[in-house]
Specification:
With 491 residues, this protein is α+β, with helices and mostly antiparallel strands. The protein folds into two domains: 2-193 and 200-227, no CATH class; 365-491, Neuraminidase. It has eight helices and 23 strands. It has helices at 2-27, 41-49, 64-84, 93-109, 123-135, 139-153, 172-192, 201-230; strands spanning 244-251, 254-261, 264-271, 280-281, 287-294, 297-303, 308-312, 315-322, 325-329, 335-342, 345-352, 361-363, 369-378, 381-388, 394-398, 405-406, 412-417, 423-430, 433-440, 446-448, 458-463, 468-473, 483-488. A hairpin with a 2-residue loop joins strand 2 (254-261) and strand 3. The longest helix has 30 residues, at 201-230. The chain is elongated, with a radius of gyration of 28 Å. The model is unreliable at 1-29 (pLDDT under 50).
Length: 491
């Protein structure tokens, strides 16, 4: 029995890795929260009740209220019997193994990150159930268990597009997990109902705690989801299969950004007046990790081995800067600024007259600062976010008044100076999310860009013009799977 169980476990692990884990790893893809192929309760509820302009434009019933009620309560209903059916009066080996198996199965069934390789753990409770079924000579149930186990481990592709209740057909793993869990609960209840024991008040306490948790989670979930969907009013609709739209920039009537697709990271371009059109991708074999564009120039950071290089797309075979990332062009397009990692710490550098092959490079920041991002207008006016001595990141400014001065904005990143130098927009971290704030560079006054706190991340802002921002937002999407938004911030 043990040898057979080990063989089955090994076969499922090998098959799951080859058919599910390896392809996702090779292509660098990840599942968005609306991908029902993950067969999680959370993803299924997202697909049924929450609209998202790109990934889920037509849910079965668009209702944030229904999602807010079901998202916390359904997992608790699935998990509660595993706790409430524990019998303190029966500490037999068989009972303990069955209770442990039910708890593990329930945890996998309600997991919000139901990656396929996690389900190799089902081999353990299946072995427990199989041993007890063999001992009782229940061979019909044993065959049913084997079929359910194979079905749980079978890779089920997700639909390319689906609407309505048909998404329920694409989550057989979830139904099989729930069916197996229901069988365990029935077994535990039948085996424990004849046990004579005093009333266990601990179960009533657990029931109250589970119910309170589910009910108290409804209001925060409703508030969070409504806040996310308010951000949809500023979203640009991009007809692209990319999971991520990063670092949006506007230049000469076009919007460019980095698109994360199944083939890697690519520079994408779309006309500002045709944002719903299909973006044009730079389908080079190497990853495009960042870029800078101004006055007809387009510089791209290419991810090569062992380090990144900056090239001009007009001459892609020529390397402008070796070992550099995050290129930036000055306001007059004559100076190139970039970040170079020295011994694992970012340092800001500038090259004036960069088109010349012998242009000198000058470090703008000291080695004591670990630079993350920067915004550069000229050598006399720039801002950057950095970490010093292990403290949280903050924004430093250099202008006519400041010289590498920390602005005291709290934990902040992604600075972006307006073209006229009057304003600086940045992301401030509070309550677990990054929200956009704007600073008046003359008075030092700051304010949140949105009217109230946005319960998701707003990052990588840039100025489309003197009054309007482009930025990345992951509202209603997976964490850091940003889409592009446009917002007017100056009256």
């Amino acid at each position: 029995m043990l040898a057979g169980s080990v063989a089955v476990f090994g076969w499922n692990l090998h098959r799951t890795y080859l058919h599910e884990v390896l392809p996702w790893t090779l292509h660098g893809e990840a599942l968005p929260p609306y991908a029902v192929s993950s067969a999680s309760i959370s993803n299924l509820l997202h697909a049924l009740f929450l609209a998202e302009p790109q990934w889920n434009p037509h849910p079965w019933h668009s209702s944030v209220l229904w999602f807010a009620w079901l998202e916390p309560t359904l997992p608790m209903l699935v998990l509660a019997p595993a706790i409430l059916l524990m019998c303190r009066g029966d500490r037999s080996r068989e009972r303990v193994l069955l209770e442990w198996s039910a708890l593990l199965t329930a945890a996998l069934a309600i997991s919000t990150s139901a990656a396929s390789y996690n389900f190799v753990l089902m081999a353990l409770p299946v072995c427990v159930l199989a041993a007890q079924l063999i001992e009782r000579r229940c061979y019909g149930w044993l065959a049913t268990l084997a079929v359910a186990y194979c079905g749980i481990g079978y890779p089920m592709p997700g639909p390319a597009s689906s609407t309505g209740l048909e998404v329920l057909l694409y989550v057989p793993r979830l139904w099989l997990m729930l069916a197996m869990l229901a069988g365990m609960y029935a077994w535990l209840w039948r085996a424990g109902r004849d046990k004579t024991a005093s009333r266990d008040w601990g179960q009533y306490a657990w029931t109250a705690a589970i119910a309170a948790y589910a009910l108290l989670s409804v209001v925060p979930t409703l508030h969070r989801e409504r806040g996310m969907r308010q951000e949809f009013a500023y979203r640009l609709r991009m007809r692209t299969e990319a999971l991520l739209h990063a670092e949006p920039r506007a230049d000469d009537g076009e919007i460019r950004f980095i698109a994360f697709t199944s083939s890697g990271y690519h520079l994408a371009t779309v006309r500002e007046d045709a944002s719903e059109a299909e973006p044009v991708l730079d389908l080079s074999l190497d990853d495009d990790l960042s870029f800078a564009s101004r006055a007809g120039r387009l510089l791209v950071e290419r991810g090569l081995s062992p380090r990144s290089v900056v090239i001009d797309l007009r001459e892609p075979s020529r390397v402008l800067v070796d070992d550099a990332r995050d290129p930036m062009l000055s306001a007059d397009a004559k100076s190139l600024t970039f970040v170079r990692d020295v011994r694992g710490r970012g340092q800001l550098w500038v090259r004036t007259g960069f088109a010349s092959g012998d242009a000198p490079e000058v470090a703008l920041t000291p080695p004591s600062l670990n630079v993350y991002e920067a915004s550069f207008l000229s050598r006399r006016e720039y801002a950057f976010s950095a970490v010093e001595a292990g403290r949280p990141p903050q924004i430093y400014l250099t202008d006519q008044i400041h010289a590498h001065a920390a602005l005291g904005l709290g934990e902040s990143r992604y600075p972006s100076l307006s073209p006229d130098g009057r304003w600086m927009v940045y992301s401030h971290f509070a309550q677990g999310v990054w929200n956009l704030w704007i600073r008046d560079q003359q008075s030092g006054a700051t304010r949140r860009v949105a009217a109230s706190e946005v319960p998701c991340n707003q990052i990588q802002p840039s100025w489309e013009d003197a009054k309007t921002l482009l930025y990345g937002t992951d509202c209603g999407r997976g964490l850091w799977f940003t889409a592009i938004a446009r917002r007017r911030v100056i009256p």
